[in-house]
């Protein structure tokens, strides 16, 4: 599913990632941990095809990300979903419309869209807010809308950047349970987090610890 060999990325003269190497199989659950500025977000954006590494080799879902053509990038993004910290939701549209958007783009029938959106909203305790404009939601609710939109397409790979950052402890563990259910059905998950309690609670997960753009430790 994911293979990185000596992957590096820099912003100008500042290296965000240096010599990153690891392999994940289909169905793995990986926590990427480390302090702010360690390179977690950069790594997720590279895995999503948003940033092209300056060096090394990288393969995600069968695609060589160093040599992606535009059409291949579009195909990759149909298989890989990402949730970033800025959410990128449409504040003037309802919760339902935001979550349904990627399914509408894919041309799914209306009945199927309604069924899938309602199911994912229920799983994230958002169904009562389905018709509410996102601008009226709290930060934590907006974050869950972004997560629902990423999950509704049933991606092969889900990338989540600090998805519990705006959630209380109860909701954070509920979200982890939702991720676990998706993972059990075959979705590979890479979750960047600094929440040690969450990481320690999932003993079967793989863990990478980043510091100053380098891997300083793993459990695999």
Please give the structural blueprint.
Layout: E1 2-11, E2 14-24, E3 29-33, H1 40-47, E4 55-60, E5 63-64, H2 70-79, E6 80-83, H3 95-105, H4 110-123, H5 139-151, E7 157-161, H6 169-184, E8 188-192, H7 196-201, E9 206-211, E10 214-218
Parallel strand pairs: 3-8, 3-9, 6-7, 7-8
Antiparallel strand pairs: 1-2, 1-4, 4-5, 9-10
Can you walk through the features of this model?
With 220 residues, the protein is an alpha/beta fold. It has one domain: Rossmann fold (3-Layer(aba) Sandwich), CATH 3.40.50.300. It is built from 7 helices and 10 strands. The strands form 2 sheets. It has a 6-stranded mixed beta sheet, with helices on both faces. β4 and β5 form a beta hairpin. α3 (95-105) crosses α4 and α3 (95-105) packs parallel to α5. The radius of gyration is 17 Å and the shape is globular. The protein starts with a strand and ends with a strand. The model has no long low-confidence stretch (mean pLDDT 96).
